[in-house]
Amino acid sequence: MRVTVFAAGSRGDIQPCVVLSRGLQQAGYEVCLAAPQDFAGFVQEHGVSFYPLRGDVQQIMASDTGKEFMETGGANPLKSIRAIRALIAPVIREMLEDLYAACQDADAMICLGVFSAFGNSIAEALGIPILNIEPTPLLPTRAFPAPSWPIQRNLGGAHNSLSGIAMLRVLWLWYSPFVNDFRKRLGLPKYTAAGFYRGLKSTPMIGAYSPGIIPHPADWPESVHITGSLFLDSMAGWQPSPELQAFLEAGDPPVYVGFGSMAGRSPEQLAGLIFEALARSGRRGLLLTGWGGLRTGSVPEDVFLLEAAPHHWLFPRMSALVHHGGAGTTAEALRSGVPSVIVPFILDQPFWGARIKALGLGPDPIPQKKLTAERLAQAIRIAVTDPGIRQRAGAYGAAVRAEDGIGSAVKIVQRYFGESEQQP
Predict the structure, then answer these.
(1) Are residues 211 and 318 in the same domain?
(2) 203-233 residue pLDDT tens
(3) Fewer Cβ atoms within 10 A, N terminus or C terminus of the chain?
């Protein structure tokens, strides 16, 4: 059976789809991962067949519009509509043309849930089954506020449910002009917001996050399957440089700081704030610069700069983890058993920050707009020294490590698509 998997966004969006693709290949499926062309190297180095889609996501997020959105666009859902449309307008038409071509020989399709309107349109046009995957909850529920909703306090079931409905409306408005232009070119009838919601709710969904962190809400359909996170462990033999190894051995475990693609418009200023916070907290630090371009000038002696390293190797060797709260990074932090200090910038990041706090696995999240050196220093002190937080983080880490997310996800695909005739 030939399966096309569609993913776009940041590495945190692409990575679980790479893991699922590898798992399906090992189960005998013929898999092609269609993603923006700037992820070609990342996908192919993990042995997954790749179909490049025109449009460079990293370049888009590095633009002035992208940097502005990272700082302000996620705070107000209504303002995010205009920002997202402006970001994707230059590339979306060509990207969808390429995606449609990537699905021509497919017997089935797997799509990131946030792009389900596009995926369902292709599946409808080609007459093939489709399944969604999402590393962050997407459907409304009374159990918790919707990711990306500005108010992440649990104000009750009615508020939580309404926030989910509102955010699905916002999600629809992000893409609706492009969806219906695409459907017109495919010869399909116009989509409505109600049709989008019905399609999302009726399509089977793999929730690629830990059921220990987010149990299946009672008001979700049984077609939503929470499998556990899909971890990429192909770099199991990765070795640190002699310089990194020497730094780790030279003192107490350092504090990790990394914000992925979220450096914003003032990366030098952010780096300086981090250095000051580490100094105030009295802790050594390891700064992962990431592809967001977290640039630095002079670096203190007790801070080590690192461009990249596998989280599964690095995180367990840290005393605390300061990060933006992206779904993938949060999952790796949970698995490591090390407390998190979350500095959310946009979209679902405040949701993960609130979740970590509610479970007692870290201090209060610090929104990027309210970040100061003293606030960050105090949060680091709490994460490093609070025995309750450290004990709970360790226990959750052990539970997450015991999950088999990829095994569960492959079984879900087999249930809906059937087992591949080709044996591994």
Answers:
(1) no
(2) 999 999 999 999 999 999 999 999 999 998 8
(3) C
